[in-house]
Amino acid sequence: MVGRRSIALALPIVAAALAVGVGSGNGRSAAVQPNPRASEYGVQIQVPGQIPVLAGAHAAPPWGPSADGAFSYPADGSVLQVATTTGRLSVDGGGATVRAGADLTKLSLFGGEITADAIVARAGAVLTGTTGSAVFGRSSVTNLTVLGQPVSPTPHLRVPLGDWGHAILLEEEQVAGKNAAAPTYHAWVTAIDVWLDAAHGGLPAGTRMLIGYADALASAARPAKPVPPPSPPPAAPPPATPRTPSNVLNDLGLFPVLTLPPPLQSSITSQGYVFPVFGLSGYADTFGAPRSDVPGGWHHGDDIFAPLGAPVLAVADGTIFSVGPNPVGGNRLWLQDRVGNQFYYAHLSAYTPLARNGTQVHAGDVLGFVGNTGDAAGGPYHLHFEVHPASLLFLGYDGAVDPTPYLDAWRRLRDVQFPSGAAWAPQPLHSLLPPPGAVLLQSTDISTASGLDPASLQRALRPQPGDALLTGGRRR
Fold this sequence. Notes:
There is one protein chain. The protein is mainly β. Helices cover 9% and strands 36% of the residues. The chain has 5 helices and 28 strands. It has helices at residues 11-23, 245-251, 262-268, 404-409, 454-461, and strands at 37-46, 53-55, 58-60, 64-67, 71-73, 80-82, 84-92, 97-109, 114-128, 131-135, 140-142, 144-146, 149-151, 157-161, 165-176, 184-196, 208-219, 282-283, 302-305, 311-313, 318-326, 330-337, 342-351, 360-361, 366-370, 382-388, 470-471, 474-475. Strands 4, 5, 6, 7, 8, 9, 10, 11, 12 and 13 form a 10-stranded antiparallel sheet that branches.
């Protein structure tokens, strides 16, 4: 996989690694190896309910320059055009200095409503010992014109776009890693970040366009501590302090590169598991990507982008637990299947009555609805989804594996037709209130229907005697 190490570990190999970490003669575990990374892209277009469009995207290692030429979206260029997209990713000092860059020329958005002669995104991350710093100095947007007016970009400048959107220029972010065994420093920049607050140019509200993105993660081994001179062994040496397998594996620098042994992968992608989001959705393999605001500092799952209110389904028969909000995951829950594998769902806009601790559910049951609660607030609507196999639960939260092969293999439920006028959730309301996760359109309770049985969903959605739509609190 480009941009991330991949190590396939069967359980006997894990056991051997544990033995090496605990049984070394000097009592110290193997040294953690630096793992510098970088990525860049020229353009990313996120349309609600569609797979994100990427142009000029590259990740390192391998390191080096790239050139991808012109790009238009859609094919006629009516929304976006650039003449060239190039990138550069480099590393020095064994990973202590990482640089990432994305260059574009002759940008035109919405037929010339926004133009720029050149866009330069530069992010550098530098580690000196355990102290890090970021370098953004060469990031720039040349001859930027917005709705006919020249704009001089400054970091984090917010620019209104008529009554249909806004843009943020030169978004610069940096964060130090919290893993003491392997210091890291992360820096990233987006040159132009365009948000559509209302439909415009044939694109719906909620569309986001990121233009010129560069991401650098410096990584270095922690300096070795001086070894004290040897001393005579005591007559009765005290017993060694036991070390947990999780700590040993962290010392060996194996996170987040664990993958499943073949028997487990085969079982989780066999019959009985379903895709966790109903209807149109898109996802990419972002497992292991740097994340500054989550435990461990890396992405433990994949993000499945879908419309606000899209139904979230139980992927297997099992038991619901840990239902409720937290600052990172927002409205979240866990599901444990019949053989002990666990699955994590986050950023839900709302729950169904099935989302209660201890509830027994079946594959395809509707547990909640897609949203952007928690640390995803203000971003695209999506479900954050993780896979934690039973054999790796001893590692705690870091016992996650790449969910992409499972998402690729599980059945997608696209064959259910809903009655005209029925919808899971409305478009976001333009007011001072947060967008609703779901709005009651009729009194039918669909939570007991199964996503695996189209007929049961159709029956649940069929109007019943006495049903009424609610508008502004009045029955009609």
